[in-house]
Amino acid sequence: MAVTHRTALRFIPVVAAVALLVTACATPAGGTATPAPAESTASPSLDPTPSATPSPIESQATDDEISLPSSCDELFAGDLRATLDAEIAPLNDPGVTMYSTENAEALTVLESGVPSLRCTWGTPSDRGIATTVSIVSPAQSELIVDALTSSGFGSEEASGGMYFRTSQRMLSMDEEVVDLGETHFLRGNVWVATRWVNYGPDAYTPGIVAQLWP
C-alpha cells in the first residue's frame, strides 16, 4: 500500500542509525570525558566594595551549574544500574558508535568540542543506547532548545530543568518493527542527550539527572 511505501522510505535514515550500532566509524567510543579548555587566571579585582548579594535567580543558576563527571559509572546507580546491567549490558562496548542525537543543529553543538562524557549501553546490534553529557554555554543551550522545539520534540519542565522527547515506531525495509527515539535534558550548564533504538526505559534519563544533581 502507499502508506507502507512511505513508511519504508522514512525508515531509510533509521537504517543508517541502526547501522551505526553494528559497524564502527570515526565516532569515539564511550566512557571518556573530554576536558574543558584551560581557563586563564583573571586579575584580582581592585574594587574594595563588597559584591552585592546575588538574586534568587542568580543563586539558582549557580547551584544548577556543575562539573562534568569523570566517568560513566558516576551516572548510573541503584535500581537503574541494576536494570541496565541485567537487560542491556555492557556499558561502553567500543563497537557501539551510534550518535546521541540525529538533530542536525544539536549534533553541530555536540561535535563542536564542548566538554563531554559519552556513555553507551548494549552491544553492536539493532538495540542500544547512546548518551552524551556536555557542558554548554547559555547561547548553546538556547540553540539546542530552539532546534529541538522546531523539530517537533515534546517538552516538559521537571527536575529543575527542561525535558525534550521524541519517539517513533517504524517498519524497516525488511518489514521489522523498530522503536527509536531521543530524550534531552537541559539544566544550568548541562545538556544530557540520549538516543535509543529498541530499548528506552522511562527511568533512564531521570536516573542520570538524579545522579548529576543529588
Automatic annotation (TrEMBL):
PROSITE patterns: PROKAR_LIPOPROTEIN (PS51257). The keyword Lipid metabolism does not apply. Residues 30-45 have a biased composition (Low complexity). Residues 1-26 form the signal peptide. Keywords: Signal. Residues 46-60 have a biased composition (Polar residues). The keyword Signal applies. Residues 30-65 are annotated as: Disordered. It comes from the Bacteria. This is DUF3558 domain-containing protein. It comes from Microbacterium paludicola.
